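Field notebook, page 98. I keep forgetting to write these up properly, so this time I am using the form the group agreed on. The chain and the ligand, heme C, are recorded exactly as supplied. Prediction of the bound pose follows.
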Amino acid sequence: MKYLFAVWLLCIASLAQAADVANGQRLYGVHCIGCHGATGEGVMPNAPKFNRGDGLMRADTDLLQQIKTGRGAMPAYFGILRDAEIFDLIAYLRTLPR
Ligand code: HEC
């Protein structure tokens, strides 16, 4: 029981950690760059232009849901990326130069 509590505490602690932009950038290069482009300019028809703030004017938790579910040509990342990784990605998207 004590052990379970420690595990639970660890999980909560890792959720509370600040998003890691560098990790987000790395993941972006692996999973997103092909459609969203190196500068977030969007290289696929319909892809939002992150470097103009398209699609980003909403809460992180909203974006998390959207990225997990996918939309149109955008694949769903549920089961591929962990929530913490998606939060890292979102933090990176918010740093793209406008
Ligand atoms: C196969 C191409 C493709 C890949 C890979 C891809 N996206 Fe997308 N993404 C799209 C397209 C197309 C849209 C626009 C969908 C629409 O509105 O129909 C989109 C939309 C979005 C949006 C805006 C959603 C909204 O509701 O406005 C976000 C945020 C996003 N993508 C993030 C990501 C992230 C983060 C990754 C990598 C983990 C990623 N995308 C990978 C094609 C892709």
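OBSERVATIONS:
- Residues 31-32, 34-36, 44, 46-48, 55, 63, 66-67, 71-75, 77, 89 surround heme C (CB under 6 Å).
- The chain has one domain: 20-93.
FOLLOW-UP: compare against the apo run.
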